[in-house]
UniProtKB/TrEMBL annotation:
Belongs to the GPAT/DAPAT family. It comes from the Eukaryota. Keywords: Acyltransferase, Membrane, Transferase. The gene is LOC108902778. GO terms for cellular component: mitochondrial membrane; peroxisomal membrane. This is Dihydroxyacetone phosphate acyltransferase. Residues 141-270 form the Phospholipid/glycerol acyltransferase domain. InterPro entries: GPAT/DHAPAT, GPAT/DHAPAT_C, GPAT/DHAPAT_LPLAT, Plipid/glycerol_acylTrfase. It is found in: Membrane. Pathway: Phospholipid metabolism. GO terms for molecular function: glycerol-3-phosphate O-acyltransferase activity; glycerone-phosphate O-acyltransferase activity.
Length: 677
């Protein structure tokens, strides 16, 4: 039996969360070959024998729903039935998994070697595994892992194999299929491949949805997909995509299954393999195409230390329970089940609310490492203009303060209890030594990347700025892991600063505006503004930072430090949205398209950063720029012109100016921002 990690039970705030065990401990002490070739007899849904891939394909191609859509396509296009059936068959051939135990055993052996080299530990909550073992036998199961790394779906399959659980079938992007050899290996370990977008392709959608529903209804294997749709390059949770969630809920809505169990899984990496790759992508360096040769070149990562991984299998969520009192299933009795029907408004709203709840469940069970707190502090210190960095003992004191605050806010923090704080901090800095520099007892971000002896003139100011931005965006991705903990109090802290008075209604109005503005940026559940405001007030009152009466919100003397930290956490996002507003008012042309927006706004931001008019290098993040444009489109301040060149943007300058003012006025100089704080 692997050793237990006991830190989770030491803090009274964390009692509701399970203990962990390190599965690599056993792998380090026994044969990997014996592990890969061991007897594998997973429990399955209602004792069914897993179906062969060929049988599954036949069931899909013979389904009433697919036949209905095939005849519909024939009527609309005039094509012969055989021709459309053949196309459906080739779509399925391209898509379908070919799960083979021999391939799984190969991966089990190989990944054991890789994981032991890369990671110090892989910690799993055993109680979550036991809950999953139980629920797999009772209902069709859908696994919903967070998605921060390519490693996620390999890791999930590895864990289920380790614990003798049925291997999942996994929705993977088509780009993986282009990897020679590896693409087919993934297919034989349970991946099924789907296009990133279907457009209006009815036939593709019908084949895809029927394939997923057939696997789910018959309980052949747990279905696994990423609610966020793609890897988060920023370590923030992404707005959930609803397509696959709609598909897996549909058999329940139509009464074809009694229930469906949704299991959110939180995967937390102490150090992300793609760290600098993500930062470069956010700065406009194209994402490398997935290829086998690229994978082989990536072998140099095996010489690095990536710390630990924590995987937390959350409480299974019953779709039946979620839908009780929300969904009237009688509407599905009015037309035959096999006729595809666009989800009604109430179904769409229910699926959307459920998706947000599930992503929130993922966030709340993310394990935060000390480095997440250190990155938050170092980023704020770097912006405050301390060129020489921060003294190591001062950073340790701040980290302990932030550790205690985050625990009071309910963070799931892995901070070694019996180790002196100075050692915890030094160990974290050592693991992330590519991002920080320690000199003469002072710590700062490693922004000076010029090689020793290389003349400074060899690097242009813009190149230097972008190389610094890689470090800053990498650090920000770790800080972002803690955003869900501080987000609501930070929105309230910023609202207090921007509100025209300390009247509770004024502060609430300001909070409501900011929350609405940032609802593309963060996971903020629809319709929960009052609840979020009350939660933020509760946390800040509980920690002694605020006094809240019926009429007023007052900052206490001891609350100043907390509010400065919280507003500083949100300030890069505020400035990012402000600078996008400024760009749209000053430089957007009549012919600006959505495709041209990111390169044009990046150029504008670089100019302002080099001129010293912006404080936050983080505003170079394309993710921040896309989210701010999405918010402006949602609010109607920018709209897409129909019939014009694809994605041409029409800017309502008066409205954009007004939003910029409400966010905090003109782009602040450094003095103005410090004064405001």
């Amino acid at each position: 039996m692997a050793s237990k990690a006991v830190y989770s039970q030491r803090d009274p705030m964390l009692k509701k969360r399970d203990d962990f065990e390190d599965i690599l401990e056993e792998r380090r002490n026994s044969s990997d070959l014996r592990y890969a070739l061991r007897c594998y007899a997973p429990v399955v849904y209602k004792g069914l024998c897993p179906s062969k891939a060929g049988t599954l394909k036949s069931m899909v191609l013979q389904s009433d729903q697919l036949h209905y859509v095939i005849h519909q396509v024939c009527r609309e296009t005039g094509r012969a039935v055989d021709d459309v059936q053949e196309e459906a068959s080739s779509i399925l051939e391209e898509m379908a998994h070919r799960l083979q135990l021999s391939t799984v055993r190969f991966f089990a052996f190989t990944l054991s070697k890789v994981f032991k080299t890369l990671f110090r530990s892989i910690c799993v909550n055993e109680e979550g595994i036991q809950r999953l073992q139980q629920v797999i036998q009772e209902h069709p199961v859908v696994l919903l892992p967070s998605h921060r790394s390519y490693m996620d779906f390999l890791l999930m399959s590895y864990l289920l194999y380790t614990y003798d659980l049925a291997l999942p079938v996994i929705a993977a992007g088509m780009d993986f299929m282009g990897m020679k050899f590896v693409g087919e290996m993934l297919r034989m370990s349970g991946a099924f491949f789907i296009r990133r977008s279907f457009g209006g392709d009815k036939l593709y959608w019908a084949v895809f949805s029927e394939y997923v529903k057939t696997m789910l209804k018959n309980g052949f294997a747990p279905v696994e997909f990423f609610l966020e749709g793609t890897r988060s390059r920023t370590s923030k949770s992404l707005t959930p995509k609803l397509g696959l969630l709609n598909i897996v809920m549909d058999p329940f809505f139509k009464g074809e299954v009694f229930d469906v169990s949704l299991v959110p899984v939180s995967i937390s990496y102490e150090r992300i393999l793609e760290e600098s790759l993500y930062a470069r992508e956010l700065l406009g360096v194209p994402k490398p195409k997935e290829s086998t040769s690229g994978l082989i070149k990536a072998r140099k990562v095996l010489s690095e230390d990536y710390g630990s991984i924590h995987v937390y299998f959350g409480q299974p969520v019953s779709v039946r329970s979620l839908a009780e009192g929300r969904v009237n299933r009688c509407q599905f009795n009015l037309i035959p089940r096999h006729i595809p029907k666009k989800p009604s408004e109430d179904i769409h709203s229910f699926v959307n609310d459920s998706a947000y709840r599930l992503v929130r469940a993922q966030e709340e069970n993310m394990v935060l490492k000390p480095w997440v707190l250190l990155a938050s502090l170092l980023l704020q210190n770097q912006v405050s203009g301390q060129k020489r960095g921060i003294a190591l003992d001062e950073l340790t004191e701040q980290a302990v303060w932030l550790r205690d605050l985050s625990r009071q806010y309910g963070a799931f923090l892995h901070w070694p209890e019996h180790t002196p704080p100075s050692e915890v901090v030094s160990s974290s800095l050592s693991l992330h030594r590519g991002l920080v520099r320690i000199s003469e007892g002072r710590v700062q971000l490693a922004l000076d990347k010029a090689a020793p002896g290389e003349p400074r003139s060899a690097v242009t100011p813009e190149e230097e700025l972008l190389s610094q931005a890689v470090i800053i965006l990498s650090c920000a991705s770790y800080r972002n892991q803690a955003l869900h903990v501080f987000l609501r109090p930070a929105l309230l802290a910023s609202a207090i600063h921007t509100a025209s008075s300390n009247k509770k209604q004024e502060v609430f109005n300001s909070f409501s505006f900011l929350r609405n503005m940032f609802s593309n940026e963060f996971i903020l559940c629809p319709g929960a503004t009052v609840q979020d405001f009350e939660e933020a007030c509760y946390l800040l009152v509980k920690t002694g930072a605020l006094q809240v009466t019926q009429q007023e919100v007052l900052v206490t003397e001891r609350g100043h430090r907390t509010l400065v930290f919280l507003t500083s956490m949100l300030d890069p996002f505020l400035q990012g949205y402000q600078v996008v507003c400024r760009f749209l008012c000053e430089e957007a042309t009549e012919a600006l398209t959505e495709k041209q927006f990111i390169p044009a706004v990046r150029k504008f931001i670089i100019k302002h950063l080099l001129a010293g008019r912006l404080r936050y290098t983080e505003v170079l993040s394309s993710d921040l720029q896309k989210n701010s444009l999405a918010a402006l489109l949602r609010l109607g301040a920018v709209r897409k012109i129909k019939g014009a060149e694809q994605g041409t943007l029409k800017v309502n300058t008066v409205m954009v100016n007004s939003l910029e003012d409400t966010l905090g006025g003109k782009l602040p100089t450094q003095k103005a921002v410090i004064a405001r704080l």
